[in-house]
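USER: Note each token:
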Amino acid sequence: MQIKELVLYGVNGEVRHLPFNIGEVNIISGKSKSGKSVIGDIIDYCLGGSSCSIADGLVRETVSWYGLLIQFEGERCFVARQSPPKGQQSTSKFYYQIGKTINVPEKSNFISNSNTDGIEEMLSRRIGITENLNIPPDGQTRQSLSANIRHALYYCFQNQDEVAARNFLFHKQSEDFITQAIKDTMPYFLGIITEESLALENERTLLKRKIALEKRRLEEIRMLQGGGMQKATGLVAEAKYVGLLADNINLDYNDYDSLFLTLQAINQWKPVEVHTAGMDKLSFSQSQLSTVQSQLDYIDEDLRNAKTFAGETKGYIDETEYQKMRLQSIGLFEKLDFNSNHCPLCSNTLSEPLPNVEAIKTAIKNLDINIESVTREKPKLRKYIDQLEAERQALRENEKRLKLEIDSIFTQNQDGISLRDLNSKRAKIVGRISLWLESVDLNDDTSSKEDSIITLETRMVEIDKLLDRDTVEERKQSILNRMSVDMSVWAKELGLEYWDSPYRLDMGRVTVVVDKPERPVPLQQLGSGSNWVGIHLIAYFALHKYFISQNRPVPHFLFIDQPSQVYFPSDLDAQNTDKEEVNNLYRFIFNRVKEFDNKLQLIVVDHANLVDDQFQDAIIEKWWDGKKLIPESWYNK
């Protein structure tokens, strides 16, 4: 994958073409603020960058769409991306077209047919990135990462603030999480971990999780059959307490199957239906009892009155008969011719005269009549009293019956409440038994689980052999050693500091290290801007040499922004220069591209303008005499 052409579609409808040569060094030489650095930002933006790094200003104000014509092996792809609307940092509106001989469209009437994710997936597939997944080691919390075109582009750009950096080596490495992403994906791009190895790694991770689950399940079964029996024994005791199981039943508390089947039988228990008398019947009976008790009160009152009357009558008759007999004993009734002024017994003179004879006769006669009348009514009174007592007895029997009926209703309701309480207690026990039964399986066989674990672990051993860590480490060291040879030779060619010591790429720290005899020295501890630039170049060229030789899925282009910046304090010094250090730097660049046999494209933007013929031949555009990336007609009316 290389860049055939960069194209800008102006807001004014005009088109700016910037073609590049495939497999060669392409140099754009020009003054600062002419738009050189923007070229790298445009390429990155069109290749699916998450945000637009193009600075606010002339370019974003005058361009409506940015486009790239990309050359793949055997086909081309045109990708255009809309310039972010004012106030926005990005847009997901893409247009792309694929074909063997397609050219750049001359009008920007594009209808978006993809988005950022779609372009990322399409480009990743076309450069040969297959399905892959980097799974972090155990104990690390970061998410798994799948390498794609965006990760491959870390090795394709060296912006102005990156090519001479001492604290980081790769494109965008200064941003958060990028260093870790480079660590996770570099083994894939170098082929240290192949696609087959990644698939095995993924399988190994899944197997490891499955083994852990199977072992946990096996432990649960063993716990249930061991510690679980204690729980089952406790449930049996509770079932006996609430009457779900007879106390005299014989159980072998050491037999897991016997306990399981017993509890399984108890789990079939159904609650006894509770019947209670209704409140209407109770109220009716209580109402009847109240009526009977009222009637009894009335009868008791009548009976008391009747008996009192009967007693008074009897006393009256007895007293009257007694007095009559006394009078008869003295013959008072025969001697009725006495003088009314004298006592008939002692003949003394009375102060109050006695009633006359007729009056006494009349009184005695009336007394006899009264006695006869009372005597005649006495049997009727007795009959009335007997009738009242009979009615009272009937009412008392009815009262007793109603009380028994009410007591029966209360007893029945109380029994229903007790039965409901018992049902509730039993239901709780049965619920706990059901939960225990659901958590175990009588058919759980530890031997089958053990066999399954053995099978999985056997496969793990096979994968570990295929993914022998020592073999992987040996492969990594072999690759890095080969790269180190090239880097060390090139360090000498550029005259870098400690050129007589081996230079190597340290994947763990994602930097370059010089192995001095005394101690290793990382990039951060090396001095001089020219050394930093040189180290970045030898590292990138070593990586691309390996990518190309092994046909790894990384784009075969490299964008470098102002590699000569450390040699020139200003733009004026850079024109028509013949400075030896810069010539040496570019000779190195030309030699490397030539060695790659046109399989690596180099796009260099610089304010250097060497008089060297090879340099001049590689220049595709010069932006010194007012020419810039954006034509003057686009902004100067």
